[in-house]
């Protein structure tokens, strides 16, 4: 083969490579613009429009590095529109398609919360438990324990609920929730205010969350304790 032919081949190869780089760079730029646009709509509270844009982004750029984040924000859009079943599908898709994503623990928590809003406590519980067990360093472990305890109590599984609250109290004594009070102001309350500790038997302590359950305990027909605080979880 002559030197001239080799030069031509090298030139064509180099040109093709440059064209590929240009196309890829353009695609990356377009993907970034679409993602930022969708995210801006979300931050502005335009959740319906943001939903469409995130779906478009994921469809158009399925291999983009921001797809997992877009999938999470898509679920958040549905959550903010109170479309809980759609939110569950979106977060579950992230869990299935992006199992190594940094958003997995967030998605586990959000699926649990959406099922909780639907009062499907049996479905919510495994998601909270998976987060607590598999992501012990997540900042969502404490709120997951709280929601887990509430879900168990909603199902009248008191022992399991109490275990969740004991773990919450022991491991996260500074856990806080924001709540709205009658004056429509917000205050932060400590776990000691959220949990009523009720002595049931000698040398044994039981406690339940005070936000939903004004429960009277009875043993052998006699009342042994009663919750003394109450406010809404949601």
TrEMBL record:
Signal sequence coordinates: none
Gene3D superfamilies: Tetratricopeptide repeat domain
SMART domains found in the cross-reference section: TPR
Pfam families: TPR_12, TPR_6
Protein name: Uncharacterized protein
Protein source organism: marine sediment metagenome
């Amino acid at each position: 083969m002559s030197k001239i032919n080799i030069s031509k081949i090298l030139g064509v190869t180099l040109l093709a490579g440059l064209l590929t780089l240009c196309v890829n760079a353009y695609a990356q730029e377009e993907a970034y613009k679409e993602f930022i646009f969708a995210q801006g709509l979300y931050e502005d509270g335009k959740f319906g429009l943001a939903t469409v844009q995130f779906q478009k982004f994921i469809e158009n750029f399925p291999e983009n590095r921001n797809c997992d984040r877009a999938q999470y924000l898509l679920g958040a859009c549905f959550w903010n529109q109170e479309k809980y079943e759609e939110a569950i599908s979106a977060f579950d898709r992230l869990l299935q398609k992006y199992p190594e994503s940094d958003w997995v623990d967030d998605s586990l928590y959000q699926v649990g919360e959406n099922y909780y809003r639907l009062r499907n406590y049996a479905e919510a519980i495994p998601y909270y438990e998976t987060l607590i067990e598999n992501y012990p360093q997540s900042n969502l472990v404490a709120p997951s324990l709280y929601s887990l305890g509430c879900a168990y109590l909603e199902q009248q599984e008191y022992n399991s609920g109490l275990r969740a609250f004991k773990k919450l109290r022991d491991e996260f004594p500074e856990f806080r929730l924001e709540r709205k009070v009658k004056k429509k102001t917000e205050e932060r309350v400590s776990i000691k205010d959220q949990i009523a500790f009720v002595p049931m038997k000698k040398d044994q302590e039981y406690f339940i969350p005070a936000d939903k359950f004004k429960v009277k305990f009875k043993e052998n027909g006699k009342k042994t304790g009663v919750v003394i605080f109450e406010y809404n979880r949601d």
